[in-house]
Write a structure and sequence with these properties.
This protein is of the alpha+beta class. It is 13% helix and 32% strand. The strands form three sheets. A seven-stranded antiparallel sheet has the order 1-9-6-11-4-3-2. A four-stranded antiparallel sheet has the order 5-10-7-8, with no helix packed on it.
């Protein structure tokens, strides 16, 4: 052998963020969200109102989500700009229903909020590493997958969790194998503040 030693180092990493906001969600709010008018959304159901965090009844939840976004901006992205929620909507997956792979346009971070009890077993969110066409699919051996080579990762949500992730990531929801409804809230975000530099003629004030 000519290779006498080798090392593997991370070049980039793709985080997701999980926070619990149980103290911000009341039983009355849970019932309010469950009673929102829902319409068909390809596989599942989506709220007719796509700005549900603007409802006065959900103020404490909106404030808690904003607190999580502030932590992410400060401690994960380490930026001076502010993240804020744009659209927000409720989702319901009936039995045997999941959600196809998709990503979120016109958004920096996207999030899921699991505001009520989840069915058992709990369908996972599945994230795909690649965001573009792969001409050659070099899949690692199943039991050799790790942070460097895994093409997908699963996140199992828990009640009262917020999960934040990059909006560019393709993600899906596994089919709900329970007879109970799988309910959640989804939201998108954008950034406000000053981007770029005045002297570099790259300044953008949002």
């Amino acid at each position: 052998m000519t290779v006498v030693s080798h090392e593997v180092h991370p070049l980039f990493v793709e985080p997701y963020f999980r926070a619990n906001i149980a103290g911000a969600i009341s039983p009355r709010q849970v019932e309010f969200i469950k009673n929102l008018k829902m319409v068909n959304n390809m596989e599942n159901l989506i709220s007719e109102n796509l700005y549900i965090f603007e409802e006065p009844e959900l103020k404490s939840i909106k404030d808690a989500v904003q607190e999580a976004l502030d932590i992410y901006a400060r401690d994960v992205l380490c930026i001076t700009q502010k993240l804020y929620v744009t659209q927000s909507w409720s989702l319901t997956n009936q039995s045997n229903v999941g959600m196809h792979g998709h990503s979120h346009s016109n958004s920096v971070l996207s999030g899921s909020l699991y505001y009520c009890e989840l069915p058992s077993p709990t369908a996972s969110m599945v994230f795909t590493r690649h965001v573009s066409y792969q001409q050659i699919d070099l899949a690692p051996v199943a039991d050799k997958r790790n942070i460097y080579n895994s093409p997908i990762n699963r996140v199992i949500p828990k009640q009262n969790d917020i999960i934040l992730f990059s909006s560019r990531l393709t993600h899906m929801v596994e089919p709900n194998t329970s007879k109970d409804l799988r309910r959640s809230i989804a939201f998108n975000t954008f950034v406000k503040g000053k981007l770029g530099n005045y002297r570099d003629v790259s300044e953008l004030v949002l």
